[in-house]
Specification:
40% helix; three-stranded antiparallel beta sheet; 3 strands; 2 domains; alpha+beta; Helicase, Ruva Protein, domain 3
């Protein structure tokens, strides 16, 4: 998203804000986290209690700031490949990611991508950092 807004400040439901700013191995880390963080650096600024709104919602909210990365991790076709890998990797959250990715990529290419990214073959997508997904994507896109 090289032409997207440089800076976004928004109010989101607290649970969504947690997903946007999640870190690997957390319960809220997932597809939304990775797709958004590919182009933006999120920061949850503060929590907004329900009493600050009228009518009063039944949930907390949060102020979230998104700053566009000077240089996105990936662009063009590689960004689309990243999205495909992430979506497949999270398609069945409790399964090992390698089994899921074998549906779309051959075993040798995946082995090379896992080695390049420094990943164990038994890892689940929820434990893979955005940097590791980017490294995997670059290897698989070059095949």
């Amino acid at each position: 998203m090289p032409n997207g807004p440089k800076h976004i400040t928004t109010t989101l439901q607290f649970e969504v804000a947690q997903r946007v700013a999640a870190k690997p191995s957390s319960k809220t880390y997932g597809i939304l986290t990775l797709l958004l963080q590919l182009a933006y650096e999120p920061k949850m600024e503060f929590v907004i209690p329900p009493g600050c709104f009228f009518p009063r919602p039944r949930v907390d909210s949060a102020c979230v700031t998104l700053r566009r990365r000077e240089t996105p991790f990936l662009c063009g076709e590689n960004a689309r490949q990243f999205e495909r890998i992430v979506k497949r990797g999270f398609s069945q959250r409790r399964k090992m990611m390698l089994k899921l990715l074998k549906q779309d990529w051959n075993a040798d290419d995946l082995k090379n991508a896992y080695e390049t990214a420094g990943l164990d073959e038994k890892i689940r997508a929820e434990a893979v950092s955005i940097d590791q997904f980017v490294r995997m994507t670059n290897v698989l896109a070059a095949q």
